[in-house]
Specification:
The chain is mainly α. It is 72% helix and 0% strand. It contains 3 helices and no strands.
Length: 80
């Protein structure tokens, strides 16, 4: 199977919002929005894996979710 990993293919299939920051001050809120959206998608994946009784995959997504939430917390701490 072919894994389309080039940027144009990823952009077409991504569920994340488009990153639109154009200047320095706009980057932190844009990064926070992207991390928050990714966190929501990750928690949805955890729920889907749980419904399929796939505990290993749910655990994998839980680890990703924890790290993402930590990164989001760090970024948001600079917005205050």
């Amino acid at each position: 199977h072919h894994a389309p990993g080039l940027l144009p293919a990823v952009v077409k299939t991504s569920s994340l919002p488009t990153y639109t920051a154009k200047d320095g001050p706009a980057h932190l809120p844009a990064i926070a929005d992207s991390l928050a959206a990714f966190g929501t998608l990750t928690r949805t994946a955890i729920d889907a894996a749980d419904k399929l009784s796939d505990k290993d995959t749910a655990d994998l997504f839980t680890g990703i979710s924890r790290e993402n939430d930590k990164m989001l917390w760090f970024v948001e701490s600079h917005l205050a």
